[in-house]
Amino acid sequence: MEAINYLLKFSFDTVLMILVLRVWLQLVRADFYNPFSQFIVKVSNPLVIPLRRIVPSVGGVDLATIVLAYVFATLTFIIIPLINSGPIDLISALYLGLIYLIKQTGVLLFIVMLVMALMSWVVQGYNPTQMIFHQLTAPVLAPIKRIIPSIGGLDLSVLIAFLLLNVLNILFRGWVPYWAML
After folding, report:
1. CB 17 within 8 A of CB 104
2. Residue 176 has what DSSP assignment?
3. Which are the contacts of 155, defined by CB distance < 8 A and separation ≥ 6?
4. Angle subtended at Cα 66 by Cα 62 and Cα 67, rounded to the nearest 5 degrees
5. How far apart, in whole angstroms, are the C-alpha atoms of residue 134 and residue 181?
6. At what angle do helices 90-122 and 157-175 cross, to 10 degrees?
7. pLDDT in tens, 144-161
8. Exposed end of the chain (fewer CB within 10 Å): N or C?
9. Where are the domains of the chain?
10. What is the pTM of this model?
């Protein structure tokens, strides 16, 4: 049963991360023709396009993808307890789905910044994935860079962002019972 729970959670989290990346790429107006962007769009299209007929975009924000991400985050707290013969509380699942969506967005931001930092040490020259990661993290790192400039060529903005994400994670932990987070 543990293996099934793991595979289900992995599947829900993967779809959730792809949907969050799709919205994030649209919000920062990342290069649509970049191979990474194309991958995210093509993988998520089968889920998003049918829902767009029902849920329109508002002000350039793809509400269909956001709604779909919220549904997948909420389903995590419905299907896994259902399979484990546990009680299902729809109101709690809706609340936990929202908190989980926000938390997983922060986890994704952390992963993207970490990969971007590691790539900056290894990759020489132009790399399309590194460029997309830079576009994704620029809105988060730019305000930090304005406050704390580079010191001797060392950019501390990613480190400060990691610290702030950890503080936010600790705050979210207080809003969700420990047993509810999978």
Report:
1. yes
2. S
3. 145
4. 115
5. 30
6. 170
7. 999 988 888 788 889 999
8. N
9. 2-175
10. 0.87
